[in-house]
Amino acid sequence: MRRVVVTGVGLVTSLGHDVETSWSALCQGHSGIKPISSFDASDYTVRFAGEVENFDPSPYMERKDIRRTDAYTQLAVAASKQALNQARLSISEHLAPEVGVCIGSGVGGLWTLHDQFAVLHQKGHSRISPFFITMMMINAAPGVVSIQTGAKGPVWAAASACATSGNAIGESYETIRRGDAKVMIAGGSEKAITPIGIASFANMHALSRRNDDPQGASRPFDATRDGFVMGEGSGMLILEDLEFALERGAPILAEMAGYGSAADAHHITDIEPGGDGLIRAMQRALQKAGLRPDQVDYINAHGTSTRLNDAAETQAIKTCFGEYASRVAISSTKSMIGHTFGAAGAIEAIIALLSIVHGVIPPTINLHHPDPECDLDYVPNEARRTPVHVAMSNSMGFGGHNACLLLRRYEA
């Protein structure tokens, strides 16, 4: 099996429209969660979220293409082109068949769906856009990124709710390992902070209702947590066959070391209380990487700030890591950017990778009243400067999906 490395990353989050801005804010413990500005939410039960504000897609796409794509696809194109630029990779006609794309989303073009339903009801069926389907569909993002970049290898979309882009990256890693591509553009994108998005999750009683304290609302592992906060953004990684990366002199940021995926087979929304699926996903990732639990320096937790998730993930880590669980550093960066659904796995894998590159672990902010059920080292409130050789990123999604990614410092 081929070794796989990461040579470029791209980010768009509520904290910034690129990697540098987002990473700096995360390390300073800043929050991107604010009152909603994209629509009038004044009479909604939940009135705040982690929005990507004032994003301009024009540096990345032509005006015609912007008009024919949903905002979630535009974020995916931006993050993909950022990642390709860092990787110093230009996709020539000769290379194109060896470059694939796997990009996932939880709900796809929800803003397009919102807008076109309004057109249907206000102006009638004849005014529906002919681009409606191609703007809304979940595979629009990888399709458009393929067209925009010229990638002609395996191109598809992953969809496993909030585990989506963890699976997208993991399956891209496996695609390269088995020789079906030399390069994969992999990640996720989400732009679901819409009237129906906020209303539906609020009515599920899944969201925090701290309207008077948006930046303090996402508080993973805290005893006073009352639900997650919706976020949006995109994260993309350039994965490459090691030999190909070395041959072209690519900048190697880290090695993709392992991937595991497993299901709870328990409940459509609730994680299995002991975290059985996540346990097996973590164990498989460690086994594939040939690593012991005590070699992991940092875990970027799924850590949604919900009662069930945080307790179950804590228990899963204890079961998988044994006595070492109390010594591994863990943090949930959803405390700062919110839950970005289908983009979460990729954004958080990039954060895990950057912890290796920079030797800094971003904190879990708003952790002031530790839950007795959540009694591990969650790097509370302040970033920690420490060498990170191996980092893990956990993702879990509605439907019982679990994905685990392992990255390690590259050594020849």
From TrEMBL:
Identify the residues that the record assigns to the Ketosynthase family 3 (KS3) domain, covering every copy: 1-409
Q: Top EC class per UniProt?
A: transferase
- An example Gene Ontology cellular component term from the record? cytosol
Which keywords belong to this entry? Acyltransferase, Fatty acid biosynthesis, Fatty acid metabolism, Lipid biosynthesis, Lipid metabolism, Transferase
Which Enzyme Commission numbers does its entry carry? 2.3.1.179
Q: Report the catalytic activity.
A: a fatty acyl-[ACP] + malonyl-[ACP] + H(+) = a 3-oxoacyl-[ACP] + holo-[ACP] + CO2; (9Z)-hexadecenoyl-[ACP] + malonyl-[ACP] + H(+) = 3-oxo-(11Z)-octadecenoyl-[ACP] + holo-[ACP] + CO2
For the biological process aspect of GO, one term held by this record is:
fatty acid biosynthetic process
**Highest rank taxon of the organism:** Bacteria
Tell me the Gene3D superfamilies matching this sequence.
3.40.47.10
SMART domains referenced in this protein's UniProt entry, alphabetically: PKS_KS
Q: Which InterPro entries match?
A: 3-oxoacyl-ACP_synth-2 (IPR017568), Beta-ketoacyl_synthase (IPR000794), Ketoacyl_synth_AS (IPR018201), Ketoacyl_synth_C (IPR014031), Ketoacyl_synth_N (IPR014030), PKS_Beta-ketoAc_synthase_dom (IPR020841), Thiolase-like (IPR016039)
Q: Where is the active site?
A: 162 (for beta-ketoacyl synthase activity)
Q: Which Pfam families does the entry mention? A: ketoacyl-synt, Ketoacyl-synt_C
Q: In which pathway does it act?
A: Lipid metabolism; fatty acid biosynthesis
Q: Name one GO molecular function term.
A: 3-oxoacyl-[acyl-carrier-protein] synthase activity
Enumerate the PANTHER family for this protein.
Answer: 3-OXOACYL-[ACYL-CARRIER-PROTEIN] SYNTHASE, MITOCHONDRIAL (PTHR11712:SF336), POLYKETIDE SYNTHASE-RELATED (PTHR11712)
Protein family (similarity comment): Belongs to the thiolase-like superfamily. Beta-ketoacyl-ACP synthases family.
Q: What does this protein do?
A: Involved in the type II fatty acid elongation cycle. Catalyzes the elongation of a wide range of acyl-ACP by the addition of two carbons from malonyl-ACP to an acyl acceptor. Can efficiently catalyze the conversion of palmitoleoyl-ACP (cis-hexadec-9-enoyl-ACP) to cis-vaccenoyl-ACP (cis-octadec-11-enoyl-ACP), an essential step in the thermal regulation of fatty acid composition.
The name of this protein is 3-oxoacyl-[acyl-carrier-protein] synthase 2
According to its UniProt entry, this protein's organism is Ktedonosporobacter rubrisoli
